[in-house]
Write a structure and sequence with these properties.
52% of the residues lie in helices and 25% in strands. The chain is of the alpha+beta class. The chain folds into two domains: 85 residues, ACT domain (Alpha-Beta Plaits, 2-Layer Sandwich), CATH 3.30.70; 76 residues, Alpha-Beta Plaits. Strands 3-4-2-5-1-6 form a six-stranded antiparallel sheet. The chain is elongated.
């Protein structure tokens, strides 16, 4: 009797395991269940895609247009720059005027080194003139009481003059002189940059034919202000 009872318990357990497995297989094979699982997978994928898109947007915001500054002008005349700025003010475009010293060219200066006194320099100049050498007395700067023998656009021309001076007994020197030009720009405020479109730029160029349009990294503008 005891063995019979134990056998019945074992059979019940086996039947329970078999019935549970059969039920799970039936649920998995149900088309409705499969559709639900598919939708859940797609939903998860869409969430991931939206997270990725958000990350792209955030990354784009890390490098906005304000990394570059828009400049209009490039005039050598400050008054023309002020007129341009007033035109922009009438269009509710905020801006400031900023000047930039740009190198235009390099010239080569041939000269004789400064003498101890002005009188000595004048005597040396008269001596050169007597030998048909053109020059003039330098009266200011670190070469005061020196004698200028000319400014030349080409280094080889300056070198030729210096060699001729050495040949007649005069030691001359050459100095490279940078010739710069101060240009004035209207720097567009970042809050107003969206108002500068191609149509407006075309109109401004018609009214200011020499106006230039330039985009410059903000750090360069700040460096120029600091200097």
């Amino acid at each position: 009797m005891r063995w019979l009872l134990l056998l019945l318990v074992i059979l019940n357990v086996l039947y329970f395991v078999w019935a549970r497995q059969h039920f799970e297989d039936a649920v998995d094979s149900n088309p409705v269940t499969q559709a639900v699982k598919k939708d859940q997978g797609q939903s998860l994928q869409l969430v991931n895609e939206s997270v990725d898109k958000s990350a792209v947007v955030r990354e784009a915001k890390k490098t906005p247009d304000d990394a570059e500054v828009m400049l209009l002008g490039g005039f050598s005349d400050q008054e023309a720059t002020q007129v341009l700025q007033q035109r922009l003010v009438s269009l509710d475009i905020k801006s400031i005027i900023h000047s930039v010293d740009s190198q235009v060219d390099i010239e080569y200066w041939v000269y004789l080194e400064p003498l101890p006194s002005r009188q000595a320099a004048v005597r040396k100049l008269k001596e050169l003139q007597a030998r048909n050498v053109d020059g003039y007395l330098i009266t200011q700067g670190d070469l005061t009481n020196g004698i200028s023998l000319g400014m030349f656009a080409r280094e080889d021309s300056a070198q030729g003059v210096s060699e001729r001076m050495v040949a007649v007994g005069y030691d001359s020197s050459i100095r490279a002189v940078e010739r710069s030009e101060r240009l004035y720009w209207v720097v567009i405020d970042q809050s107003s940059r969206r108002l500068i479109d191609q149509l407006l730029l075309k109109q401004l160029v018609e009214d200011f034919p020499s106006m230039k349009h330039l985009l410059m990294p903000r750090e360069k503008i700040n460096a120029n202000k600091d200097s």
